[in-house]
Fold these 2 entries.
Entry 1:
Amino acid sequence: MNGSDGLFAIVKEFLLPQPRDVNHILFAGRVLVFIGLVVWGYRFITNTWQTTYVMESFMHNINLPFHEAGHIFFSPFGRFVTVLGGSLGQLLMPLICLGAFLYPNRNAFAASVALWWFAESLMDLAPYIGDARAGELPLLGGVTGSEVEDYHDWEYLLKTLGWLYSDHKIASAAYMAGRWLMVLAFLWGARVLWLQYKNLEKLPKGDS
């Protein structure tokens, strides 16, 4: 086995571990979670960044505290990184969870759920990015971006980079990336569940 084969085997072991004697109740719970995420995720995938669905979703309220914490966490690195830190914060948290589930917990199904969250969080940013020029979205503090100059994160970021007139293209790309990552999370989760299904605990004879 060469070095690349060995690395592939290690990665495969983390992403698609071979389970042994999977508990029936835990497996059923994971299947229910998976079905729920697929149904919910379908709504995200079939909407667009221009709709209000993603911003009105329950997940938006989950992402928001990590967004605001990101501003604080990245504040020592200058204004640009501080402003960008809000978006980084809400994207980093699901990635941190994904890494924690894979190592040291070796829970690939939970990691696929974290990838779903990362995809949703990326979609959640898209309307904010696309609002950079218009400044119509209500922001924390009770104002909109059009009312206070450079108060809107993505107005400031894109204006600084000279990309302000590309806000809709960037928003569309972010939402599309989120869609594909969510599909990848579904495929990953389904594969993990299939491997677990094949390794369910053997029930004693007479049990159902």
Entry 2:
Amino acid sequence: MTALTVKRADGILTVQDMGRPGHLAQGLSRGGAMDRRALLEAAALLGARAPLAAIEMAGAGGQFSVDAPTRIALTGAPMSATLDGEALRWNATHLLQPGQLLQIGGARSGVYGYLTAAGGITSEPWLDSRATHLSIGIGTPLAAGDALPCGDDPAPERPAHGLVPESRFDGGTIRVVDGPHTALFDADVLEAFYATAFTRGPRGNRQGVQLAAEARFTTDHAKGLASDLIGPGDLQMTGDGVPYVLMAECQTVGGYPRIGTVLPADLPIVAQAAPGAILRPRRVSLDEALAAARPEEAELRDLAGRCAPLVRDPATIHDLLSYQLVSGVTAGDDLDRG
């Protein structure tokens, strides 16, 4: 068993995995990582067969140490990272030794970064998940001094690997499929909505993200609308016509009209959009939405195929002379002497 210790917490740090699906009837939303793809990338880099529980770092990281050798993966929003003062590559794995200090700074782009130990965080699960769910009080943000139990690294000798991630940290286009309330909006409102380049608004957290624009998108049919089930990705309008994309810890029932639903594949773009980033909705058909749906197991296999061993730059290796760079040196006259 390995302990991953938080020496200092600079951002909002929580333990997250893929959440708790299947409990809407009990009023519990799925929760889990805001950027699920980042956990899949970490699993691929570490050679794991499934996503592992990790530390989600909102805005910034902190300082960390381990008490046994273990590889870690750094994925999600790119953040500055050093190990004993030496810069580390993001979207890559690195071997941490006891006594070394891992320092992770603020996000350079995006919002959520992830620190994943090769053995995964092994805290006590609840409903088959270790995910912190802040909105209903499951777990709390991590603080300095917290020591997280992790499984032993199954392959500490595995070479460091890197991965070029899909671009999703500066806003972009998000695909939206019609939902049960789309027909409640007039055609001109729908046309205006899909012609708008929204700014990721100042209001946003693990429950939902505001899409800001001068225009408002209302429907005369909102009054008396019966509450029904909602979930991550639903594009819900407030009473004054401001859209919010519901995220991992959204409520399970709502009565505001929903103009559509963001495809699961594009939710990481919303999650990683920092305030001010531009998000452009694009309306897609149900057939296109179904064609874009992929099992996360298949996505993990594809990501694993894209991982490659890291090639270190000799200029960044402070102890280069300690490496045996040449072997089998001779005087060049071996054949003559033979």
